[in-house]
């Protein structure tokens, strides 16, 4: 009876050791997977920061830059959702330094759509821009008529200044100063508005 008890105890101890070893192995593997995933997400963060920065600075094709950032966000979200120990929100807050999480969260579905069907994400961006343009036009029609007749006579001289005596470069600086005070969402929308309404990709062009 004593031998049977000892054998049972030995078996139980071996099982406990095996279970503990398996748990440690799984934990180590999870950490390796997490490290590998974070490494693969670094270039995505770099792309997101670079593309959003170009939108904020109004450099290049704004829709193309926004779409690239959205796609990179979608890819990062997929990696995070498939990897234990990575929270997408925490990753965004740590790795994406040029835009807040709420703005990034709204951009991700556009990237999802583009990855699923080429052109779908771009269509979503263009639709949003069109809706913004329509809303702006209605706002002007309803309340933006005042002051529209005051600028006619100030154009004398060489044309180096606007009608109110402000040079284009000075106006661009003023616009940029105001722009930098806007919220993350407002900066993105304003950049798209300038491109769609004025056809400019740079603040100096806009002025």
How would you sum up this structure, described in words?
With about 210 residues, this protein is mainly α. It has one domain (about 1-130, about 165-205). About 75% of the residues lie in helices and about 0% in strands. Helix 2 (about 60-80) crosses helix 4 (about 100-115) and helix 4 (about 100-115) packs across helix 5. Mean pLDDT is about 75; it is low at about 145-160 and about 200-205.
Report the count of strand segments: 0
Give the helix proportion (percent range).
over 70%
- Principal-axes geometry comes out as elongated
Note poorly predicted spans: 145-162, 199-207
Count of DSSP-assigned helices: 8
Strand content: under 5%
Write the layout of secondary structure elements.
Blueprint: H1 2-56, H2 62-82, H3 88-95, H4 101-116, H5 120-143, H6 168-181, H7 184-197, H8 203-206
Summarize the model shown:
By secondary structure, the chain is mostly helical.
Main features:
207 residues; mainly alpha; 0% strand; disordered C terminus
């Amino acid at each position: 009876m004593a031998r049977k008890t000892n054998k049972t105890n030995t078996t139980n101890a071996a099982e406990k050791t095996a279970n503990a070893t398996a748990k440690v192995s799984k934990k180590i593997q999870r950490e390796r997977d997490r490290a590998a995933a974070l490494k693969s997400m670094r270039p995505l963060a770099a792309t997101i920061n670079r593309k959003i920065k170009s939108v904020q600075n109004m450099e290049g094709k704004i829709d193309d830059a926004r779409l690239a950032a959205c796609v990179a966000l979608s890819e990062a979200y997929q990696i995070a959702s498939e990897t234990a120990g990575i929270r997408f929100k925490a990753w965004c807050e740590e790795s994406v330094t040029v835009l807040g999480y709420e703005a990034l969260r709204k951009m991700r579905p556009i990237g999802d759509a583009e990855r699923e069907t080429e052109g779908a994400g771009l269509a979503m961006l263009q639709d949003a821009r069109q809706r913004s343009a329509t809303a702006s036009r209605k706002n002007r029609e309803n309340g933006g008529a005042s002051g529209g007749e005051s600028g006619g006579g100030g154009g004398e001289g060489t044309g180096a200044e606007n009608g109110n005596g402000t040079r284009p470069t000075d106006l661009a600086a003023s616009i940029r100063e105001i722009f930098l005070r806007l919220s993350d969402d407002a900066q993105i929308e304003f950049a798209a508005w300038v491109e769609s309404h004025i056809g400019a990709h740079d603040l100096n062009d806009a002025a």
